[in-house]
């Protein structure tokens, strides 16, 4: 089975071609700020990015002949986890503004569907988008009836890591209780109970630990006062939640390697304080998910780019290692995860769900 994978990010579009489980091509197409400045809205980049994908395939001598095209899922309506066949309603919702955020991931289903439509008998999918919502009833309720808790998290990578870990120990994901922490530009932490993520934070814009780019949970009253202070407009304040927040706001960089250099080479005690505070809050939020699982935890899994840092991983182990065994899966492989999800449907091992 030939599968094309498309994963749009804010400044790049990753593509891959798989022959069953074997990657034939993996590319990252970078987009400069000047290139993207021509577009007022992310959705307007659809034709531009699609053409770059087709150009990359042509340059690699790969014919546009696929059994499936799978895109990174967008931030549309909350969904159960799984693989979804892209349909007209999903396309309509992505264009209509129902999407929770104007994020580049919303382009994934649009480009995948357009390319697949030009290929005979080719199917188009998304899998485990960031809006996967399997929260239990308690998790949805906040302290105000005006708003419920929602989760936006690294569902695709967390599920892929969970299945990989389960396979390594000879068990099924659906038989395990896991706490998984994905640490990248944003940090998501979820309690996985027998194959369902029953609790997870909104890692994009305002819940959980702060991260290299995001503010995490903030004091609510102070935030409201800041909104009415007249110092910032709405767009500027939203950037203070996601983008110019977290390490970026405190230290002027979202690169943890740069922060570690400041600590190790220059003895920067302020940088150490801020980084250690982030690690502290990550560990605290991991520990809080143990209550969701009533202490019945098979393992704690750490993943994402920051899981490559021994400085970070060792300090998390010190704080939460008493809860369960900790396994580290550095980085992420969203491209392989997407390809394997599509392949499972094509081989009849998994059924594609309907978006409705």
Tell me what the structure shows:
This protein has 356 residues and is an alpha/beta fold. The chain folds into two domains: 2-134 and 334-354, 2-Layer Sandwich (Nucleotidyltransferase, domain 5), CATH 3.30.420.40; 155-330, 2-Layer Sandwich (Nucleotidyltransferase, domain 5), CATH 3.30.420. The chain has 13 helices and twelve strands. The protein has helices spanning 33-36, 46-59, 88-96, 107-117, 137-140, 155-168, 220-227, 234-241, 247-251, 256-266, 269-292, 310-320, 334-346; strands at residues 2-8, 12-19, 22-30, 68-72, 83-85, 123-127, 177-183, 187-193, 196-200, 299-304, 326-330, 353-354. The strands form two sheets. A seven-stranded mixed beta sheet has the order 3-2-1-4-6-5-12, sandwiched between helices. It has a five-stranded mixed beta sheet with strand order 9-8-7-10-11, sandwiched between helices. Helix 2 packs across helix 4 (107-117), helix 10 (256-266) packs across helix 11 and helix 11 packs across helix 12. 42% of the residues are buried. The mean pLDDT is 96. Belongs to the acetokinase family. One of its GO terms (biological process) is acetate metabolic process. Its EC number is 2.7.2.7.
Name the CATH superfamily classification of the largest domain: ATPase, nucleotide binding domain
Helix content: 25-40%
**Which residue ranges are poorly predicted, with pLDDT under 50 across at least 5 consecutive positions?**
none
Task: Please tell me the overall pLDDT.
Answer: 96
- What portion of the residues fall into strands of 2 or more residues? 15-25%
- The gross shape turns out to be globular
CATH fold-type name of the largest domain: Nucleotidyltransferase, domain 5
Strand order, largest beta sheet: 3-2-1-4-6-5-12
Number of discrete domains: 2
- The structure class reads alpha/beta
Please name the CATH architecture of the largest domain.
2-Layer Sandwich
Regarding quaternary structure, how should these chains be classified?
A: single chain
Backbone CA Rg? 20 Å
| SSE sequence, one letter per element | EEEHHEEHHEHHEEEHHHHHEHEHE
Number of beta-strand segments? 12
N→C terminal distance: 28 Å
How many helices?
13
CATH class of the largest domain: Alpha Beta
Largest sheet entry? 7 strands, mixed
GO cellular component, one term: cytoplasm
GO molecular function, one term: ATP binding
Main location: cytoplasm
Enzyme class: transferase
């Amino acid at each position: 089975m030939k599968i094309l994978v498309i994963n749009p990010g804010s400044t790049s579009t990753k593509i891959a071609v798989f022959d069953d489980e074997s990657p034939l091509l993996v590319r990252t197409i970078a987009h400069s700020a000047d290139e993207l400045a021509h577009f007022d809205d992310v959705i307007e980049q659809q034709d531009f990015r699609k053409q770059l994908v087709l150009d990359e395939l042509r340059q690699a001598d790969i014919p546009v002949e696929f059994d499936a095209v799978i895109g990174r899922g967008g931030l549309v309506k909350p969904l159960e986890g799984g693989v979804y066949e892209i349909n007209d309603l999903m396309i309509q919702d992505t264009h209509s503004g129902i999407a929770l955020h104007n994020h580049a991931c919303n382009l994934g289903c649009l480009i995948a569907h357009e390319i697949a439509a030009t290929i005979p008998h080719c199917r188009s999918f998304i899998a485990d988008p960031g809006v996967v919502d399997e929260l239990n009833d308690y998790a949805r309720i906040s302290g105000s009836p005006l708003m419920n808790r929602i989760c936006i998290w690294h569902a695709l990578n967390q599920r892929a890591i969970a299945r990989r870990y389960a396979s390594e120990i000879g068990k099924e994901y659906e038989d395990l209780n896991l706490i998984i922490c994905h640490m990248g530009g944003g940090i998501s932490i979820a309690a996985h109970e027998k194959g369902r993520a029953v609790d997870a934070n909104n890692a994009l814009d305002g819940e959980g630990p702060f991260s290299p780019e995001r503010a995490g949970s903030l004091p609510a009253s102070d935030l409201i006062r800041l909104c009415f202070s007249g110092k910032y407009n709405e767009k500027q304040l939203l950037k203070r939640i996601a983008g110019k927040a977290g390490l970026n706001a405190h230290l002027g960089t979202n690169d943890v390697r740069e922060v570690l250099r400041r600590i190790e080479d220059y003895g920067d005690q302020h940088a150490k304080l801020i980084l250690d505070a982030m690690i502290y809050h990550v560990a605290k939020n991991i520990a809080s998910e143990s209550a969701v699982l009533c202490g019945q935890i098979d393992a704690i899994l750490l993943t994402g780019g920051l899981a490559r840092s021994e400085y970070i991983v060792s300090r998390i182990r010190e704080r939460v290692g008493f809860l369960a065994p900790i396994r580290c899966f550095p980085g992420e492989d969203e491209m392989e995860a997407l390809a394997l999800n599509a392949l499972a449907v094509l081989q009849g091992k998994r059924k594609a769900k309907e978006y409705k």
